[in-house]
Each structure stands twice: as C-alpha cells, then as structure tokens.
Specification:
Elements lengths: L6 E3 L9 E8 L2 E8 L4 H17 L7 H7 L5 E2 L2 H16 L9 H6 L12 E2 L14 E3 L2 E3 L9 H18 L4 E6 L2 E6 L9 E5 L9 E5 L2 E7 L4 E4 L2 E4 L2 E2 L4 E2 L4 E8 L2 H14 L14 E6 L4 E3 L28
Helix pairs in contact: 1-5, 3-6, 5-6
C-alpha cells in the first residue's frame, strides 16, 4: 500500500500474549506502536512518552528544549537527560556518516522553505530567510548542559524520530512487554516477541512512495529499519521542486540519483543516519559508509533500479528483491 511512511509493520494474532496497537500523529509523522504480552496501560503510556519527547525536541514548538537551545546558541543551556542524549546522538550520526548527516543544517532547511511543521506546509512555498550556518563540529556537551556554536541552529529531524523509537522500545520492554515495535515516520525499532509468536521475528514491509504494494519484506528479531526518500515531503518554491533532504556540502536539497534508501541496523537512529547519508551521497560507491557497522541496505535509483548489499538476502525469508521498481503509469517500465 502507499502510505505516508515507507515502512510498515504487518501484525497478526499472537501465541505469546495479547497484541495491542495504537496509531496516532507525532513528530510530524504517522506513529504506530505494537505491543505483545504487555500490561494494558503501556499502550497509552507509549503515546504519552512519544508526545513528551516531541514536546522536548520539536523545533516548531517555542517552549521545547531544542527551541531554547537554538535561541540561546553560543551560551550553555541546561537540558533534560533525553535532550542531551539527542544532541550527542546527532553528533555521533555526523561522525558516522563523515558529516553527510548533519543536524545543524537548520538554516538551509528554512531557506529551502521548510519553515513550519510539514503538516502546515503547503504545496507551494516561498523560500525562507535565515542567517544560520552549519557547525556540528563545534557543539559542546557537558553532562546535561549543551552549548551550540553562536549562529548555528539544531534540527533533530529524522535522528529525533529514530532515537525516540529506540528509547521508547527499550522502555516498553523494561516495563514488562514481551515484545514491542515502535514506528515513527518509517523509523522502526523492534524487540522481543513478534505478534505471530513463531520466533522468526518481526516482518516489516518496505514501501516505495510511487507504487501500490510493498516491494520487500524483511524479518528482524531485534533491531531497526529506517527509510529515507526524496519522493515524500516535497514542495515547490518558484516552480522549483524542493524536499527536506539537505546536502550539507551545498546547502541545497540533494539532487542525488537515488530516490529511496532502506537501511537495517541495530539502532533506529543509526539506520536513519546511514539511510539519509547514502541517499545524499548517491549511487557511486553507495555502501562505503556501511563498512564495519554491520548494517545492510537496499537502494532504489531515480530510474527505479534496485540494488542491495550482499547480506540483505538473510533478511528476506527466502524471498528476493525486484530488479526494478515499476510504475503502473509507465506500463510497467522502470522510470527513465
């Protein structure tokens, strides 16, 4: 199916315990939580916890800790343990990706027209105005105190969703769930017993934004899946197409020849960072960043052709990937 989020969880009845689900909007995306064998109150707690993290981390809420950090750039700010971890994770993602995944591109994001929540963003925008510059290398963290460099803005973006999925999934398991899955805008973290109770793990369907059915299903026992795509969260500025994936080397939405990247990793924040970085860097040696990480990836070019790391087959349950994603509007041919 075609959804706002390019990864969905296929849930079924469980032999391990009762299955509970809740779906809602959070962090500008569709959120979906599945619990197996969990106390009934954990379902609503999960939503409240995700909303609490959004209240701390949203750049669109003037009272959030991230908004305060941005307003006080150049000064030390005392923040919660969660926000200090978010900032340190963003720095780790920047290092992991050689600077390609950079949470300090806020000025470029605003200049591209993404100056409000995407739910409020119209299909046609004017470019925003901002004097902010990038500067992840100079972020300072001391316990629960954080100092952004003067003139630098911080945008949690996908790293915030990935880290939130990791945190909430771990907390649900610690609170007594036999199994948990947290999906925030396509950043998915799973752990423990899956709904079908067969011990083979969670089945996660991977969607491409321009075709009707999932083109892959991956099975994961304990880990994460994240997808980055330039085919969603798009708008027009003066007739030019813009999207939210900013290339830090240019300050502009990437013109990569990749349209979709799905990464499997242990942590959702790392899967998110690697997926974004691979997409921005493009199809020339796309998997170099994965060396030593244990992550696997599937990429789809703007022409529809599909490529993956050799190890992805172990997650396909005996299935295979298509050679290309074919669009019904082109009579089954890949895009050209």
């Amino acid at each position: 199916m075609t959804t706002t989020d390019p990864t969905v969880i296929e849930a079924a009845g469980s032999a391990t315990g009762a299955v509970q689900e809740i779906a809602f909007r959070a962090m500008g995306s569709d959120a979906h939580v599945i619990l197996v064998g969990a106390p009934a109150e954990l379902t609503s707690w999960a939503q409240q916890r995700i909303e609490q993290l959004e209240a701390m981390w949203s750049r669109f809420l003037p009272t959030s800790e991230i908004s305060v950090l941005n307003a006080e750039a150049g000064r030390w700010v005392e923040v919660s343990e969660e926000t200090a971890r978010l900032v340190s994770t963003a720095v780790a993602a920047w290092r992991l990706t050689g600077g390609t995944c950079d949470a300090t591109v806020l000025g470029d994001v605003i200049r591209a027209g993404y100056d409000r929540s995407f739910d409020e963003l119209g299909p046609r925008q004017s470019g925003g105005s901002s004097s902010l510059v990038i500067g992840c290398t100079d972020i300072e963290i001391d316990g629960s105190s954080v100092r952004l460099p003067a003139g630098v803005g911080f945008d949690p973006g996908g790293i915030g969703k990935g880290l939130a999925a990791d945190l909430v999934c771990a907390e649900l398991m610690a609170a007594g769930a036999a199994g948990a899955c947290v999906n925030l805008g396509g950043d998915v973290r799973v752990s423990g017993a899956a709904p079908d109770g067969d011990g083979d793990g969670w089945t996660i369907a991977v969607d491409h934004a321009q075709v009707e059915l999932p083109f892959a299903r991956v099975g994961i026992l304990d880990g994460a899946v994240a997808t980055s795509t330039s085919l969603l969260r798009r708008w027009l500025v003066g007739g030019s197409l813009r999207h939210h994936l900013i290339d830090p080397s240019t300050g502009l939405p990437t013109d990569s020849d990749l349209a979709h990247v799905t990464v499997l990793a242990h942590d959702a924040w790392a899967a998110e960072a690697l997926a974004k970085a691979i997409l921005i860097r493009g199809s020339l040696h796309p998997f170099d960043l994965l060396g030593g990480t244990g992550a696997e990836a599937i990429i789809v070019g703007t022409d529809g052709w599909v490529t993956s790391t050799p190890g992805i087959g172990a997650y396909l349950g005996g299935g295979s990937l298509p050679v290309a994603i074919r669009d019904h509007s082109t009579n089954g041919r890949p895009w050209t």
